[in-house]
């Protein structure tokens, strides 16, 4: 009995060890992977054209001048579906493409006008995609072309796209970080339509694709974020310019930091650096019509003074600057709301969601007609509160002592 | 019956692990699809229901503190009727309990982490572990639960804390929009997955706890811990992902872990977090299997349950490979069949026995004779 047990245990042990030592089925060795860092989808002749930027690990780390090969390569394939195109890529790629480290996903304008939902389902369903990459729409260029541009500083262009989107989102606020989950939520929500950052290629694209682009101090062709793309559900219907984009972001309440100016009494400008913002949207019912209160509070410092005769030691001067800035921001916000209401006619601000939160019962009744009937004529009350906290490292500007 | 004694603390921990079990993986999605942003309220309501059910279950057990549920039904229903009921109960429990949970872990691995691995590989390995654990007995299971519980808590709390910065309170608003009936529905699904299967504990614990008069208290504490963990995971899913994304994903808890990103530095740790549900799922399957094996040994009057573990475990692993033909079938099963089934065996069955007990108490002499003759 004991012996038989022992033998059985040994056999069991052997089996388990054999099973475990063979490791997992899905093992992927690093040298068998093509790590995709950027991807783009273009809509060409009723077909998807998928372009994938793959990092070449050896080139990223190699010393300067060691090799003439680029740090990344681009594979392009076409297909009736994106998944097919991705697999078709194995015809030209020596390795299977691995999407878990994707940083940026681009779609061109034609794709966006056709509708992005079809593209997004694959990204949401496939297990290789993680929810931490950003999405953007290429403006005036195809995604394929945008992914071909060589970039200085960040050798892998997709990393440059990822980082500069993050930085400009944080400190300039005209472009905007959007992840897959947020975009899908925007598409499916009835009270808010999505927006995506636009991406342009400036300068000569032909040079941009060439190594010449990164050889000199002056970079002839750059990848630049510009404006926001306005969507109705999943279809692109228009663009916001830089000023409107910043107003939009302020209404959405996710601006971290930005810069703006007010004009002085006598010629010149005072620049204010905004450090913190907070926005509260609150719906209310007036004669059974929805209305919306937008309360924006900002905090900032005086960034620079470009005019004389301003007594910054006097609290009333500061108050005056605050009032000027409040008026200006109010104007910007009202402008962008008005523009979207008349031009685009879709609620990208999430006013519907705000109203939904405050009046869930009424919302049920008006939900279906929100875009067509209520949003375009929605009365909004914008109130801005700007608080200037500091004046930088100096008090009064030396411009006051300037004798002309 | 095996001669084992476990302490009250071990009972609490084992209960908590059993309760969290597979619910941590499958519960948030289903509840969010029913109650939308109010799923967290539903989980609290569910906990309320759950404790009512627990009271019924343990009220019964406290009348006969040293007899387990199966002996009890033989005693109260008569020997043969009791045995038939027990057999029916164990077979259905076997098909609805451990086999599907084992399938769940295989499915999770093949969907999220190893899509090209055959599901058999994962199920057999995990099944082997369960067989090993059950064979070694309740004492070993309880001690390993004691050892692994701090790890589970560490992972769970670190996940919750790391996610705090991504919480969006708007996701939970407006509160109570969906109305009462979806919340009740979601609460019932919560109870049927988390609390009702606790009937299994009535087979496992009686006679195996060193202070049997306080077992029910330890179980309540364990259920409270487990319920709170589930409530937190549901609330986090809603607050971080939003009700739509939670409902759309098969495993929102895993997506939650994917969302952890502290300063682009502490990220991509979802595979570590997945250890959390490996631990709880192991105890869920093990306790199910343990209860079923000692149940069978009792029905067939086998003194030692250990020889039964290997064949039952083997059958379980085989069955769990094909128990669900596809993923939507599983969702359908959980929604339509598992609920009524668990209400029957987890609530109505003990309630029926309890009523029978009171009836017998009223006419003690007569009923004893009739039970002998049955």
What's the total number of strands of chain A? 13
Mean pLDDT figure of chain B: 88
The proportion of strand residues of chain B reads under 5%
Query: What is the SS-derived class of chain A?
Result: alpha/beta
Task: Report helical residue fraction of chain B.
Answer: over 70%
Radius of gyration of chain A: 27 Å
Radius of gyration computed on alpha carbons of chain B:
21 Å
Low-confidence stretches of chain B: 366-374
Could you name the CATH homologous superfamily of chain B?
Amino acid/polyamine transporter I
Question: What is the domain tally of chain A?
Answer: 2
Secondary-structure element string of chain A: HEEHEHEEHHEHHHEHHEEHEEEHHHHE
Q: How far is the first residue's CA from the last residue's CA of chain B? A: 24 Å
Percent in helix of chain A? 25-40%
Bulk shape of chain A: globular
CATH class of chain B: Mainly Alpha
The SS-based structural class of chain B is mainly alpha
Largest sheet entry of chain B? 2 strands, antiparallel
β-strand number of chain B: 2
Give the rounded overall mean pLDDT of chain A.
87
CATH topology of chain B: Amino acid/polyamine transporter I
Sheet with the most strands: spatial strand order of chain B: 1-2
